[in-house]
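Hi V.,

You were right to ask for the full record rather than a summary. Here it is.
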Amino acid sequence: MRKTLLALAAMMLLPSLAMAEEAKKMTIVETAVAAKFNTLVAAVKAAGLVDALSGDGPLTVFAPTDEAFAKLPAGTVENLLKPENKDQLVAVLTYHVVKGNMTAGKVLKKKSLETLQGGSIAVSTDDKGAKVNDSRILKTDISCSNGVVHVIDTVLLPKK
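Predicted structure:
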């Protein structure tokens, strides 16, 4: 019985391990597409950042989920996606990106991180886990061919 349970557990882990290995071969953008980060991918395309986030890197991206984008006030995402607001969209997206391959261990050793947007994001921990600014880090260390992705639950907005 124990061997059967161990075999079942191993079979359940194999797809996630295979996906993790596959992500290492994909760029940050390809990984976001595969993980169905639909709003983030649409925003990256609208901002013209696909090439930048598919380049050599290494880069670290704090990737908001679709649910994180849905928490923004009504109409915010649609407004940011308008061509006339491209500069603002670029600022928001690059505020989620840090130079280098910042694994969770490296992130947690910092009090703040400088973003490509030019601002900084605060790093903190509490009894519920790690945060950047007010956003909870949900999943860490998704390795990509050009960096690493950490999934967050709230869109980070740069200070004006």
